């Protein structure tokens, strides 16, 4: 299953080849989708534009545009764009979130004060709360707002690179204390694990990260979820919010108008199947010597398998 | 008397490709799994890991791994090593490896220590190591052949084959056998 890293730090000054280095490393460690994180500064621009460089997309097989990259373009993960807004004052409620929504794939909030944290947990319409865990917070993470946020669909993000390369001596201790208390407050639910790696050396393999968080008190299944299913749900939900009609309905695929010939063919097939079924029935009626009588359980199994195959076809 | 339970960790050293190697047009996979050129010895490795554990976990960690941490196998050609430790404390050792960020020699290169497999027996670990080395070489060959603009690919593949021999002979060596 796909692995996600929804936070790769991207200050606008990052040179492209260093970014490519980080991305190829992320891909080789097993991450299939990453998000480049642009941390916005206050005050937010009036009409924001995403300043991300155009990278060779993961699907294109044409030769890489940047000659400096050694890796072939298919060695890149799928790339999303994300913005993180630092918030200190909850009273100024107009953050121009809708205008940002159209530009970035994912939005996240980085609350700096307790009020902003509460506000982000309880009211703001954003999918992610990303805290700077390497600093000391003058407040607890209380279970009530945290669980309310999780129930509302807001996810908390833990960025392990903050602990790997600490800025000052106490940063790692602060990170561990904050992470354990947040895990305790949410009981490990609704936690996304991402890197916030500033270079390729800030990345770690998924299982290493899971073990690390297991040492800090997050069960390993939940940590794995935080790398797989939960970020996926965030990405899909956000995508749906942007493409779909009012975030509810989306056109996945338009059915083809069946041509006349095709219709006949399918008719033939179905009639053949019917005949086959008849034959089987006859056999069953006739024969006690039938080699493999289909038991009820067997028939049920076959039916289930057929249904699963049909649904898979539909999905693909 | 009950046997002492152990865990074996298979660890890969990964070098994210930097600007110099990408200019030389080495395929990314080969660059990441390049051999360790520094003169890394098992003793230096154990010392560095113990220092990291002591930094993270203090005297408790240092004591927990004191008598039972050892390097069972170290291959600089494939940047792979196998560690053995007590089963009760393997997570502690693993997290310390996660926090290490450079080759533990003087002026070591920055790198990532990636734990590939954890197992209770050294035999499984050995099988996985051989299998991974083989797959890596096949993948690198495939990447090089699908990437015709790298002129050096032939040379690199030649080196790669040599490396495969090194791997095989090293894996067949006696030091891979279960230490009794």
Automatic annotation (TrEMBL), chain A:
The keyword Ion transport does not apply. Belongs to the eukaryotic/archaeal RNase P protein component 3 family. InterPro entries: Pol/histidinol_Pase-like (IPR016195), RNase_P_p30 (IPR002738). Its main location: nucleus. Transmembrane segments: none annotated. This is RNase P subunit p30. It comes from the Eukaryota. Residues 55-73 have a biased composition (Low complexity). One of its GO terms (biological process) is tRNA processing. It is found in: Nucleus. It holds the Pfam family RNase_P_p30. Residues 51-74, 259-316 are annotated as: Disordered. GO terms for molecular function: RNA binding. GO terms for cellular component: nucleolar ribonuclease P complex. Keywords: tRNA processing.
Automatic annotation (TrEMBL), chain B:
SUPFAM superfamilies: Rnp2-like (SSF160350). It comes from Trichoderma parareesei. One of its GO terms (biological process) is maturation of 5.8S rRNA. The keyword Nucleus applies. It is found in: Nucleus. Its main location: nucleus. It catalyses: Endonucleolytic cleavage of RNA, removing 5'-extranucleotides from tRNA precursor. The keyword tRNA processing applies. Belongs to the eukaryotic/archaeal RNase P protein component 2 family. Component of ribonuclease P, a protein complex that generates mature tRNA molecules by cleaving their 5'-ends. Also a component of RNase MRP, which cleaves pre-rRNA sequences. Keywords: Hydrolase, Nucleus, tRNA processing. Pfam families: RNase_P_Rpp14. Signal peptide: none annotated. This is Ribonuclease P/MRP protein subunit POP5. Gene3D superfamilies: Ribonuclease P, Pop5 subunit. Its EC number is 3.1.26.5. It comes from the Eukaryota. InterPro entries: Pop5/Rpp14/Rnp2-like, Rnp2-like_sf. One of its GO terms (cellular component) is ribonuclease MRP complex. GO terms for molecular function: ribonuclease P activity; ribonuclease P RNA binding. PANTHER family: RIBONUCLEASE P PROTEIN SUBUNIT P14, RIBONUCLEASE P_MRP PROTEIN SUBUNIT POP5.
